Amino acid sequence: MDETARRSLTRFDHLSSALLDEVDARSAEEAVHSALWPTVGAVAGHVTAVYRWVTEIVRTGAPADRAESPLDDDTKTTVLRDARDELLAELESDDRECWVIGGTTGTTAFWRRRMVLESLKHLLDVRTPPSSHFAVPTALDAELASDGLDEFLQVFLARSRSSLDPLPGTVRLAATDIDRTWTLAPDWSLDDDTEVTATIEGSAAVLLLLLWERASALDEPDRFRITGDAAIVRALESTPIHR
To answer: In whole angstroms, what is the distance from residue 115 CA to residue 165 CA?
Structure first.
């Protein structure tokens, strides 16, 4: 196993353990800042379903069905822990071919990265009350955030692109703490050579929170700097890329 794989496993172990601790310390009915999974029990049920789904994909190499339901106080910790431990054991195996999001064939490495980011995202959900802004965790350094931005734009956006209304202009995401930019053309393609009509600047971490719909460049001027046409930023923030 190479160093990248070991680093991903270490991050997944750390973040999924932190998520378990947060779920265990809270009531299943406690509200969190998520429209899709509005309680701790709902987040725990979702993550359990994802962990089981990925375990089956990695184990068999083929796509799998996924079903989820909220967990209660009697099940939220033990069921999530069992799913997490089973997935960790599969991800510790040597790389092998398997189905990946987008309907293509990749390797276990795809899911190691995906589960790091999945665990981190929902750890943020469990930690954040409905009326609070999402804080940037110490685990989300510029390198990991850049990796998350790459994943979102290359995997999730690619899957949704054909169903999205065009942007009214070109928008560039510019990280202020690492030498990286990502430029979206009106057709949602990545194109660093196109003329930019709006720019959103911020740390790589807050740019990732923006794409994860857990921050707003328009509503949080202390975290973001916008130049150019704000209507393009508004279109970016309001487009349901994940759906």
So the answer is: 29
Residues of the chain with CATH 3.30.1050.10: 162-238
Ranges for all domains in the chain classified under CATH 1.20.120.450: 3-127
Closest CA to 47 of 92, 74, 12: 12
Q: In a structure prediction context, what are the per-residue pLDDT tens digits for the chain, which is 243 residues long? A: 789 999 999 999 999 999 999 999 999 999 999 989 999 999 999 999 999 999 999 999 999 999 999 999 999 999 999 999 999 999 999 999 999 998 899 999 999 999 999 999 999 999 999 999 999 999 999 999 999 999 999 999 988 888 999 999 999 999 999 999 999 999 999 998 889 999 999 999 999 999 999 999 999 999 999 999 999 999 999 998 864
Give CA–CA dist 94/108, Å, rounded. 8
The verdict on domain 162-238 having CATH code 3.30.1050.10 is yes
Contacts with 128 (C-beta within 8 Å, 6 or more apart), sequence order: 32, 33, 134, 135, 214
Using DSSP bridges, classify how beta strands 104-107 and 97-100 pair: parallel, antiparallel or unpaired: antiparallel
Q: Options 2.10.60.10, 1.20.120.450, 1.10.10.10, 3.10.290.10; which CATH number does 3-127 get?
A: 1.20.120.450
Kind and range of the H or E element at 199?
strand 198-202
Tokens 């660093």 belong to which residue?
Answer: 192
Q: Where are the alpha helices (DSSP H) in the chain?
A: 3-25, 40-60, 76-91, 108-127, 142-151, 157-160, 204-211, 230-238
B/e letters for 52-64, b = 16+ CB within 10 Å, e = fewer, are bbbbbbbbeeeee
Q: In the structure encoding, which two tokens stand for residue 65, read together?
A: 């069905």
